[in-house]
Amino acid sequence: MGLVDTHCHLQSKRFHDDQEAAITASLERLDWLVVIGDDVPSSEAGLKLVREQVYAVVGVHPYYAKDMDDAMLARVRTLAGEPGVIGLGEMGLDYFNEYSPREDQARAFHMQLELACDLDLPIVIHNREADADCYAILSDYADRLKGCIMHCFGSPAEYAEKFVDLGFYISFAGNVTFAKAQQLRDAVAVVPLDRLLVETDAPYLAPVPVRGKRCEPWYVEHTAACIAALKGVDVDSFADQTTANAHRVYGLTQL
Ligand code: NI
Predict the structure, then answer these.
(1) Does residue 89 contact residue 59 with C-beta atoms inside 8 Å?
(2) What proportions of the chain, in percent to the nearest 5, are helix, strand and coil?
(3) Which of 46, 170, 222, 238 is the most buried (most CB within 10 A)?
(4) Average model confidence (pLDDT) for the chain?
(5) What pLDDT sits at residue 90?
(6) Rounded to the nearest 5°, which phi and psi values hold at 20?
(7) Contact 62, 92 (CB under 8 A)
(8) Does domain 4-250 have CATH number 3.20.20.140?
(9) 218, 29 in Cβ contact below 8 A?
(10) Residue ranges of the domains in the chain?
(11) How confident is the model at residue 1 (pLDDT cuts 50, 70, 90)?
């Protein structure tokens, strides 16, 4: 099996001029990829990219939580029923960029968690500097959730263990390759191979050795090589394992 980019934003305006070329180039090297929404317009734009090997996740990022209301939730529910949608997100808490007040972030998070339980869809979590609150909220839902991905993991290893104990998957992005990211590499060490995922969060966080460039989904190869080395496994078996994990958490039939 090849690799999967479990999280990218190909609908971003940074792909405006060459979106189709970027998709084609990445699908030549990857098994499949997942385009993630941040709000209703970007979720709709992501849906337009769905095709063989391209799936979508729809939802409202904590940045936009203050705008969440019943009408917006109803819109997300409708989008979630479209073909090719395999999850809800990204949702969660961001206390580093508090673009929405914390109360609104918690409210929008709860609304989407209830929706995920109702629709029996896995979720993609954005958690930045909100470990304790994020853990408290998610642990209340863990038994009811179909699956959960801690996207672009950036918390201490202690929290990687706690989220794994809830049955969740831990997804690492290109920042794990950065020289100063020892905390992330410490987190990699405690995550079992059957709970690891790799992603790009493209167009952001291009990994070493392409750091600073616009990130492309296939750059997930660099992140995978870094983590495989940390885990002491060869790149091919790491790809097999993480791709099987991606199939499992997103509820796709093994090919
Ligand atoms: Ni993202």
Answers:
(1) yes
(2) 45, 20, 35
(3) 46
(4) 97
(5) 98
(6) -65, -40
(7) yes
(8) yes
(9) yes
(10) 4-250
(11) confident
Give me 120's structure tokens. Answer: 């029996």
Write the pLDDT tens digit of every residue in 28-52.
Answer: 999 999 999 999 999 999 999 999 9
The two tokens of residue 119 are 């629709």
Q: Give dist(CA 39, CA 46) in Å, integer.
A: 10
Distance (Å, rounded) from C-alpha 115 to C-alpha 112?
5
C-alpha 175, offset from chain centre: 14
Spatial contact of 117 and 93, defined as CB atoms under 8 Å apart: no
Cα(235) to centroid(ligand 1), Å: 24
**How is residue 1 written in tokens?**
């099996």
Distance in Å, CA 231 to ligand 1 centroid: 25
Protein residues near ligand 1, an ion, with CB under 5 A: 201
> Ligand 1 centre from 90 Cα, in Å?
7
| Start-to-end Cα distance in the chain | 9
**41 CA to middle of ligand 1, Å?**
15
63, 100 Cβ separation under 8 angstroms: yes
